[in-house]
Amino acid sequence: MANLESHIAWRYLFSKKGHNAINIVTGISAAAVAVVTAAMICVLSVMNGFGTLVEQMFSEFDPVLLVVPTDGHTLRTDTVPIASLYAREDIEAVSMQLEQTALIRYKDHQTPARVMGVDSLFTQTAHIDSIITDGFYSVWDGAFDRVVMGRGLAAQIGMNAHFTGALHLYAPQRTGRINMMRPDLSLRHEHAFIAGTFAVNQVDYDDQLLLVSLPLAQRLFDYDEYTASALRITPKRAQDTDRTQTELVKLLGPGYKVLNRYEQQASFFNILRIEKLLTILLLVFILLIASFNIIGSLSMLIIDKREDIQILSHLGADESTIRRVFLIEGWFISSLGALTGLIAGVLLCLGQQYFGWLKLGSGAEYVISAYPVQVQIWDIALVAVIVLTLGFAAALYPSRKIHIS
After folding, report:
1. CA angle, 10 as apex, 7 and 15 as ends, to 5°?
2. Cross-strand partners of 114
3. In sequence order, which residues have a C-beta less than 8 Å from that of residue 358 and are 6 or more positions away?
4. Which of the residues 13, 199, 203, 250 has an alpha carbon 20 to 30 A from that of 55?
């Protein structure tokens, strides 16, 4: 019986209707669903593309895994768990870091900045050389302390990699009393010379971050401890960092957190997921409006096929069977639109991916020249489920109104 119902619904979909308006409304219904479906694929793919692009930017600076203390601000390397990192075969390099906020000054310009002290192994855990925009990377040249700062921060302070003047760094003393007569004596002071600038193309890095040598940071902030430990994984484990992360969490215990790249930028990726969810909800609302066309076309078709309904009833079809015919008919309309939209959306995204039809612009201010896209199979499946579910719901209402007198 199910095959018979589907066959009748299929014939109704393509057969000539009693009124040409029904054909037009049916075509508009399928086209509306197709347009919204294609739009959903394109929008989600562009958001995936931007997410992947930003992830790649972060990966040039953020380590694969980062160990930070759960409570407090610093961690010590003389504790047994941290020392055990060096003995693991799946960890290739361990870089210690100390990060605090300080005031930096160059001539008449001053601004607060995030000062990160890094050791000699920092270049093994971060691809800092690949994001240098001017000068070179160096935090100690054998005679003088050097700094490498974000491109935006350098612009704020009025410096570039070729300036020879000293950059001054100030931080409050951690111990001792504040001299109210000479507050400046309560500040620890260091100076260094700029070596280069970098760009991650993220405000938190480019406009706020300053890299210095670890000994300079320890002197400036009066710390012997560290705030984080960056880890580099061996190539054999590079594709299975989740396993290493899980093992390290058990090894280090509750006093430490082991963060992957997503967790290091949790706030950003959470915002990205929320934006994607809101975008889906907005497009679903638009699709819901488009689904009213299916209700209208199916209602008109039911009126047009009243004689056929009576004939089917006389041939022995009960009310539920006839309702299923038109329910399947409405679902066919939405399926046709969904299939057309999915194919069109995927083809548009693949064309943008390989040919870059839509341009962002050109110049140094643009990281890429064309809109990035990334088609994901899960997005296609999600869109298909949403469209077909709404199409089924839209067909359900008019088909239930059928009554055999």
Report:
1. 120
2. 101, 209
3. 352, 370, 371
4. 250
- Rounded distance, CA 92 to CA 154, Å? 33
pTM of the model: 0.81
| Pair (37, 73) in one structural domain | no
Cα 131 to Cα 309: distance, rounded to the nearest angstrom: 71
Cα–Cα distance measured from residue 278 to residue 272, given in angstroms and rounded to the nearest whole number: 10
Shared domain for 216 and 357, answered yes or no, is no
Same-domain pairing of 236 and 285 = no
In terms of domains, do 246 and 154 share one? yes
The Cα angle at residue 206 between residues 372 and 121, in degrees rounded to 5: 100
Instruction: Write the DSSP string, 253-283.
Output: -TTEEEE-HHHHTHHHHHHHHHHHHHHHHHH
> What 3-state DSSP class applies to 102?
strand
| Residue that the structure tokens 């700062």 belong to | 149
**What whole-number distance in Å separates Cα of residue 323 and Cα of residue 329?**
10
Quote the number of domains for the chain. Answer: 2
pLDDT single digits (tens) 105-158: 999 999 999 999 999 999 999 999 999 999 999 999 999 999 999 999 999 999
Q: Tell me, yes or no, whether 259 and 305 share the same domain.
A: no
For the stretch 278-309, pLDDT in tens is 999 999 999 998 888 888 888 888 888 788 87
95 secondary structure, DSSP code: E
Provide the 10 A C-beta neighbour count for residue 389: 12
Kindly report, residue by residue over 217-274, the tens digit of the pLDDT.
Answer: 999 999 888 999 999 999 988 888 999 999 999 998 888 999 999 999 999 899 999 9
**Both 336 and 289 in a single domain?**
yes
Amino acid identity, position 37: T
Nearest to 67 by CA among 256, 219, 212: 256
What would the pLDDT profile of 10-36 be if each residue is shown by its tens digit?
A: 777 777 655 567 778 888 889 999 999
Q: Which of 94, 112, 108, 95 is nearest to 153 (CA)?
A: 112
In a domain, 405, yes or no: no
DSSP code at position 183: G
Looking at 218, 242, 263, the residue that finishes a domain is: 263
Q: CA nearest 231: which of 249, 207, 204, 209?
A: 249
The answer to whether residue 256 sits within a structural domain is yes
Residue 194 lies in a domain: yes
Rg (CA), the chain: 32
Q: Which residues contact 102 (CB under 8 A, 6 or more apart)?
A: 112, 113, 115, 169, 170, 171, 220, 221
Q: Is the domain of 109 the same as that of 125?
A: yes
